[in-house]
Amino acid sequence: MIAAIFGVVILIEQKILRHFGNYAVSAFFWTILLGAATYFARMKAVSDINSIFPFDASALPMTLVAGTVIQLMIFLFWPLVVGAVVAAFYLVLKVRDSEFWSETHKNPLAVIFSAALICFMTGMSAFYVDHFFSETKRLQILYRVAHAADFSSNFNCAGVDPKQYHVLFVGPEQRRISIAEIIPETFIYFGPRVADIMQEVTLPGKESLELNDCLPGIAKTTDPLAERINELHFEIKPINN
């Protein structure tokens, strides 16, 4: 998918942007466009995260970044579709053009191959975005990212077993936590294996992720003096008068 996007960008740069290279307004326009797309993508990512967790999305910085990237990729769906259609139309025109195959044209097969490759890759990328980034799958991906990047398995909170739960520390004092069960590993023995982050997961209810206080657990230690006394053996002997 990244290669397809790169190919589309190269095509735009070679065929369109080179004619505007001497105009500073074009660079300003693309900068504003990218900034606006990132801003709206972040807004949608915050909305997705808030639909999963009952607290502010800023408590999950890595998940917020992942959600923004996903939304930017979703924004590219229609540009990818348009790129695939344009590449296909260009390919058909060149194949049917008799002058294109004349000896005067330099390396026509390379042009045909490039257009076909761009058409295929942009089409597959659009299908990938539409298939894997639907609302349900998108939320599942964000939940897995939160467990992998923002939640912690290293903590000391009374009543919370690190072998069964992950926790997210919220707030500057790091005293409030959200507790979530560890996502069990899934094994696929038959069929195509997808990346772990793409595998389906059951989202918990927002009530189970409400913030709680983290009370430090007290380790069970015995009194060293009592241990020493237990080690001593007293022998009581009768007193001979």
What is Rg?
A: 30 Å
Q: Helical stretch count?
A: 7
Sheet of most strands: 3 strands, antiparallel
Q: What count of domains describes the coordinates? A: 2
How would you describe this protein?
- With 241 residues, this protein is mainly alpha-helical.
- The chain has 2 domains: 2-140, no CATH class; 152-213, no CATH class.
- 52% of the residues lie in helices and 6% in strands.
- The protein contains 7 helices and 3 strands; from the N terminus they run ααααααβββα.
- It has helices at residues 2-15, 24-50, 61-75, 77-96, 108-132, 135-150, 224-231, and strands at 165-170, 176-181, 211-213.
- A 3-stranded antiparallel β-sheet has the order 1-2-3, with no helix packed on it.
- β1 and β2 (176-181) form a beta hairpin.
- The longest helix has 27 residues, at 24-50.
- The N and C termini lie far apart (100 Å).
- The mean pLDDT is 79.
What attributes characterize this protein structure?
241 residues; mainly alpha; 2 domains; 3-stranded antiparallel β-sheet; elongated
In brief:
The protein is mainly α and 241 residues long.
What's the layout of helices and strands?
Elements: H1 2-15, H2 24-50, H3 61-75, H4 77-96, H5 108-132, H6 135-150, E1 165-170, E2 176-181, E3 211-213, H7 224-231
Antiparallel strand pairs: 1-2, 2-3
Helix pairs in contact: 1-5, 2-3, 3-6, 4-5
